[in-house]
Each structure stands twice: as structure tokens, then as C-alpha cells.
Amino acid sequence: MRTGAVLRRTLTLVMVPALLACAGAAHAERLKDLVQIQGVRDNPLIGYGLVVGLDGTGDQTMQTPFTTQTLQNMLANLGISLNNGQASGGSSASNMQLKNVAAVMVTATLPPFARPGEAIDVTVSSLGNAKSLRGGTLLMTPLKGADGQVYALSQGNIAVGGAGASANGSKVQINQLAAGRITGGAIIERAVPTQVAQAGGVMQMELNDMDYDTTQRIVAAVNNAFGSGTATPLDGRTIQVHAPADPGQQVAFMAQLENLDVRPAQAAAKVILNARTGSIVMNQMVTLQSCAVAHGNLSVVVNTQTVVSQPNAFSNGSTVATPQSQIQLKQDNGALKLVTAGANLAEVVKALNALGATPADLMSILQAMKAAGALRADLEII
Description:
382 residues, alpha+beta, four-stranded antiparallel beta sheet, flat, Flagellar P-ring protein, structural molecule activity, flagellum, signal
């Protein structure tokens, strides 16, 4: 029995350092997840159009005159003039009361190496005060790039992921009704020239996150796989690669290059604070130094009650409802609490949880710790 206990104790002592070594080792990633090839990029497209066929949920044209103007211009291009109605006593174009038409903005992303005739998805968003785009059809809308040229034409039925109903002042809605999507709703009409390699097959890779250590590791991995001198670092983000000059061989070269396993360097210590949602995220490199923290909560409570004043009999007075408010101001005592130093993420979380602060208060505490030099990390507020 004693021998078995000693053996189990020895195994435990051997396994703990092994687990610590595995936890501290960085995970290898594919090169395609760390870099992007210069010149291979998406291009945003945007257009303005009309959605028709809505079930009374379109724009209120008296409040959105651009919808009426757009419809009038579209009908004029189709040979239909609305100005003749004024001479015959009818309603003019500016007095049209339309409920099944909505002005929208159409956005799409033109992927690299896209060719004319290919279909891409588009997103349709209401520009006016339309209640819903469900059941609508987008009329042919040209999509332009940053240079003002038309690169795609969009048209089709809109798929809206939300649902809703309203009656007698009550309304129920799920998700967003003023935006939808058309799968394959745009046809590419013009391609964007994409030049990956320069003369002699020279191309450049750009790291997603600038890091000198990771750059050096990528260069070493590429040179070990394809030979010395294939990759040369230009700075902490850009790497120059000598690929085959033959375009037919460049595809096979890029396929092998992107699948190389590289062990990236450990990221810089960083704490992300989301002021809108109160979320706090920190990576494993964050450390704490010993410090003392005192944080008191200030709360204001306002209670409002309605008091009914009833007049005396035969006084010809009227019953009056008067609101009365009571305000209470409370401030909790903030005693100094010792925050112990933490060398890893688990110790940092344990030390911060010991303060018992809410996420909103913890944001202020972390900023004060950073100013005092006790928080060894970069604070980023989004």
C-alpha cells in the first residue's frame, strides 16, 4: 500500500509540470490565418433603389419626398409622364400617396478575382420610414464602387428575417423588419483588376497584427519550406516573398504557402472595455501588481406617488391628482481593499472578483489601476 501511494504521488508530480508546459506553449496556426496577400481584397459596392410590392408598409411619401421623386424619374425613363395629370385636373406627382413603395440603400461586397456574370449577395436597408420590407421586390439597381463606376446590377425578392404585427396601438416585432437580404441578388458586370505578384513573381504579405517576433517566425518557416531567400522581412508587418514567375505555378506555390504551420508570438497584454454593454475582456498576458483599492457606490432613488386631493362637500371644488416625489441619496462606504499581485490570468480574475464590484465599477477601477501603474496591460475602450 505504501509503495502504491508513493507511485501515485510521483506520477502526480511528473504530470503537473507537463500540463504547465503544454498550457504555456503557443498553438501553431496556419499562415493564411495570420497574414493576407497584398492586393487580394474585397471591394464595397453601394447603390440607391426602390422596393415595390409592399403590403401597405412602405414610405409615407409626404415625409419622404425623395421616394416620390425617384419613382417619378423611374417612370419617366419607362415612358410614363405624371405631369399630365395637372392639366386634366388629376393629382400631381408630388401629391401621390404611396404605401407599397420604399426607398432603400443596397450594399454588397465584390470579392477578389470576381468575373462578370457571377452572382453576389446584397443587403437591402430602408432609407425612409418604411415599416417593413417583407414581401417587397427590389427593382434593378446599379451598384457603384468608390470610383463611381458601376460594377454590378441588383434585382430580386427580399428575404426578411423578422416578423411583426400591430393592431389598435399594440405592436409585436421580432428582429429587424427594415432590412433584408437577397441571396445572389446582384450580377457582376465589371471585374476589378487584381495584381498579386509584380515583375519576377515578387509579392508581399501583410500580417493581420503587427508583431516583429511573429514576422521573424513566418520568415523562418517560409525559408525552411521553400529555401533560403524566399521570404524577406520589410518591417514588423510586411514580408516580401519571391514566388515563381510563371502565373500557372503561383497558384500551387500560394496553396503550399498558406498551409504552413507557424507558431505566433504571444500577444501584448491588453484589456478591452466595452462602454456600451459593460463587457470586459482581457487576454492571458495581463498581470497585476499589488495595490489598494477603495470604491464607494453612490445611488439616487426617486419614488413618485400620486396623491388625490378631494374637496369638501358643497365647496364647488374639483378633485385634483398631485404627484409627490421623495428623493433618497445613499452612498456606501468604500474601505481600502488589498489587491494581491497576479502573474497569470486566473490570479488576475480572482483578485478582481475579490473587490465585489459591478462591471461598470470595474471599468473605473481598471482605469485607475492603469494610471497608478498596477495594471500591466493596454486599455482599449470600444
